Amino acid sequence: MCPSSRGRTRLDAARVDSLLAAGHLISRAVRFWRPGHGRDEAVLCALASVPVASDTVEEPGSREELARQLTVERAVSRAHLATVKAQFYDRDWRRENNHDGIHPEDHLWWATAGYLDLDDAIAALDG
Fold first, then answer.
1. What gap in Å lies between CA 119 and CA 127, rounded to an integer?
2. In order along the chain (127 residues), what is the average pLDDT of each group of 10 residues?
3. Ramachandran angles phi, psi of 7, nearest 5°
4. Taking the model in full, what pTM does it have?
5. Could you tell me the sign of the dihedral formed by the alpha carbons of 8, 31, 45, 18, in that order?
6. Using CA atoms, how far apart are residues 74 and 46, in angstroms rounded to an integer?
């Protein structure tokens, strides 16, 4: 059963870490959300299995296209990190984001890690 079929996509931290360790450089994107269609269940299921099916991976058209996309994603990621940081000590937000073994600290960690991964990927392209 695909994890997203339970109504909420969950990839456990160990699984995500193993996927990142195997290919820590961001060189291509996987589209798991399509405007007007929502979640792409096939992609989410592929991410939950090994190996990721090659037909779910979209290569950027060029290095410049990848750099532009990473720059946009880094800006969105930074805005999300700023939002999480701003809300971190808000009691209502903490209560709403503390369930199913996921704690407010997890949200802060994920936002930070996501931003830094994108920033590192851009630095690697520049260097």
1. 12
2. 47 50 58 76 75 64 88 93 95 91 91 92 87
3. 95, -15
4. 0.59
5. negative
6. 24
How many Å apart are CA 50 and CA 26, to the nearest integer? 18
- Rounded to whole angstroms, the Cα distance separating 82 from 40 reads 28
Going by C-alpha positions, the residue among 21, 22, 24, 43 that lies closest to residue 32 is: 43
Cα separation, 55 vs 49, in Å, equals 14
The two structure tokens encoding residue 35: 């405007």
Written as one letter, the residue type at 95 is: R
Rounded Cα gap, residues 29 and 47, in angstroms: 12
Contact 108, 84 (CB under 8 A): yes
* Nearest-5° Cα angle at 60, 49 to 51: 15
Q: Which two tokens stand for residue 7?
A: 């109504």
Residue with tokens 């290919």: 23
